[in-house]
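Entries read sequence, tokenised fold; example below:

***
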Amino acid sequence: MEEINPNQPHLDIELSEEVAEGIYSNLAIITHSQSEFVIDFIKIMPGVPKARVKSRILLTPQHAKRLVKALAENIQKFEQLNGKIKEVDNGFPMNFGGPTAQA
């Protein structure tokens, strides 16, 4: 654990039970304007042609860049402990690679 420096400002961060549960997402769509980045987190389901945005995060360009750096550092730490994350890029699978449902 990091030592707390009494000379540095301290920020208390609260996490409600509802937010702590999290929201599952298996798709993120990122757009941006001159002043902000928008990340929409979506859950798509096999065989369902429509999906709903579950959460939207708006960031300044500076915060977006810090987020990318923090994610890269955490992925590196994860891979050091667990091995390389296998990348699968085969487009946008609507059926998740499973059999097509029939009625």
Q: What stands out?
A: The mean pLDDT is 87. Residues 61-82 form the longest helix (22 residues). Residues 23-82 form one domain. Strands lie at 27-32, 37-43, 52-59.
